[in-house]
Amino acid sequence: MSAGLTQLGVALSADQQDQLLAYAALVEKWNKTFNLVSRQDIKRLLPRHLLDSLAGAALLNGQQILDLGSGAGLPGVPLAISAPERSFMLLDRSSRRVRFLQQVARNLSLHNVEVVEGDFAQVIGPGDLYDTVTARGVTTGPEVWAMVGRNISATGRVLVYESTQMSMEEDEQSPVEPNQTDSANVTVERHVYSVAGLEHNHSILIMAHA
Predict the structure, then answer these.
(1) pTM of the prediction?
(2) Which domains does the chain have, with CATH numbers?
């Protein structure tokens, strides 16, 4: 794990690394019950999901973080472990996965994590503002922005983990180019990175108010 963290430029204490491994153990234990990740990905849980999630650690902005469609807690739980000084809301509409996330927060003593069940439009009001919204395995960048853009603070941003949205081939055929969106009021950048143990480079789309 240490080499993978170093490659990403992420520094975790020994206690934080222990929390990350305890989280991985919970995902493996409850995967069949809660349908958290694919069987194939269980075998490469550390690089494919945990380290990949932590690639966004240096891109977080502000104090209030929303993990949209958190699912198994990716990237929300690894990011919350890496940034205990920030507040994270993990939002998912599946009651089964919400129960899993609540158990994770209790078992790992993640006091900076709030787990909420429901759809974004039903739970988040027009006056609720977030400094960072993360989305991994939810939908495309423009669709995420269309959903949450009004709830991003003036200096906030949306982080969309692109490599979980489509295959590498599809990503190469229909990329979202930096600074090209449906709205002239949105800026787009792409953060490209590599994860130890994974073959292809991955990327995070960074969207913000212009």
Answers:
(1) 0.91
(2) 2-209 (3.40.50.150)
